[in-house]
Amino acid sequence: MNVGQAIELAKDWVDTIGRHVPGFCGAHLMGGLTYTPQEVLFADYKDIDLNIVVQGAPGYEVRDLLYQGRILEYGTVSTDRYRSPEVVLSDIELASNLAADSILADPLGMLAELRRTVAKEYPRRKWVVARCEQLKNSASQSVAELSRASSAVAALMRVMFLIRDLAGLVAIAGLRPPTNRRSLILMREILAQSGQSTLYEDVLAVLGVAQMSQAQVELFLVECAAAFDKAVEVTRTPIPYQFKLHAYVKPYVIAGAQEMIDAGSHREAMLWIAVSILLANTAIQIDAAEADRPAFQEMANRLASELGLDTMETVKTRLQQAQALTDSVFKASDMIVSSNPAIID
């Protein structure tokens, strides 16, 4: 399947199933499909992301499902987030997607009207700065939560959220759509283009993966697969990102990481692997049989330890490093925005 065929599959799902969601007002693509040429191969493990715009939806709810053999992820999103071009243009998740040719269904004409303005105004400096400020605020919150972490594993989760925010900030400053799995690869590219590769190594150091070998990462990927399987088997209690815990999503997690490792980005893959291990362990510690829990908790503890977080003293040191890194990435993103010729006044 290529990208064009994946988009047609998304349209088919919307036409046959998605339009029956109560309050349906439209649908559009999210993520890589919005900016990848249609003839490019769309790997089997990748998911098809889209939003269903719903009148009166209370917030944002995400679901994963299997449709005609492909993973499809959709969020139901209130029309309130689409109420004006200004709201969309300052939204870190929606702006890049509605600036692209992403509309799958638009029975009210609402999305097309929005897109005309969003596509034109997307590179305007005031909107780029507004989106950057959102992620700066999120990153600052992640640092604050890291300062309150009560264990090494909890600290690792906050560090990973911080790195995700900082990678997204650099992407937005570079006028590139943020991404999840390949967020560090995109960050590396943009910082290299701006002559700041040293800063990128600092990012990897704060994450704790700067010195990790490919063999170490691949061992954790094996453990990640085992933890994911167990979590799928036992999960019952709602937790954040539980929608990912399905057997058919496993290739998205495991093959997606292996693809990065095979391409020489094993350190970057470790962020994806670590997040997946901690998500799985959260479900296991809540819902697995008591006898099954210690082995997976030990896996999470060892993960934190190998990433340099084994005592609360190391957590304190990492907090100081994270604060310094956050300041440096904020300055770097400001420089990227000020020097980016694609950004208009």
Largest sheet: 5 strands, mixed
> From the alpha-carbon coordinates, what is the Rg to the nearest angstrom?
20 Å
Strand order of the largest sheet: 3-4-2-1-5
Distance between the termini: 40 Å
**Beta content:** 5-15%
Low-confidence stretches: none
Q: What's the order of the H and E elements? A: HEEEEHHEHHHHHHHHHH
Helix content: 55-70%
Question: Care to describe what's here?
Answer:
- This protein has 345 residues and is of the alpha+beta class.
- The chain folds into 2 domains: 120 residues, Beta Polymerase, domain 2 (2-Layer Sandwich), CATH 3.30.460.10; 203 residues, no CATH class.
- The protein has 13 helices and 5 strands.
- The protein has a 5-stranded mixed sheet, with helices on both faces.
- α6 crosses α12 and α8 runs antiparallel to α13.
- The longest helix has 28 residues.
- It starts with a helix and ends in a 6-residue tail after the last helix.
